Amino acid sequence: MENILQINNLHKYFGELEVLKGIDLSVSKGEIISVIGSSGSGKSTLLRCINFLETPNNGEIIFKGKNYVTNQNDLQELRKRISMVFQSFNLFNNLSVINNLCLTPVKVLKKEKKETFVKALEVLDLVGMKDFAYKSTKLLSGGQKQRVAIARSLMMDPEIILFDEPTSALDPEMVGEVLDVMKDLAKTGITMLIVTHEMQFAKEISNRVIFMHEGIVHESGLPSEILNNPKEERTKLFLKRFL
Amino acid sequence: MLKFVKRVLVFIIAFGIIIAIQSRDDIYASEVNTDNETIMEAIEELRFYSSYNYQTLTEDKLSQLIVDFYLPVRYGDVLIDWQLESEYVELGTETETIEINSITGYVEVEVLKVTILEVPSVFKGDQVFELLASFEYLDESVEYSYFGTLVPQISADFLGGATYTLIRYFSLFVEGALLTIGISLVGTVIGFVLALFIVTGKTLNIKDFESKASKITKQVIKKVSSLYVIIFRGTPMIVQASFFWFGLGLFGNALLCGLFVVSLNTAAYIAEIIRGGIQSVDSGQTEASKSLGMTGSQTMRYIIFPQAIKNSLPAIGNEFVINIKDTAVLSVIGIFELFNQTRKIAGMHYRQLEAYLIVALIYLFLTYTVSSILRQVEKRLDMPLKELPSSN
Question: Regarding the domain with residue range B165-380, which homologous superfamily does it belong to in the CATH classification?
Answer without folding.
Answer: MetI-like (1.10.3720.10)
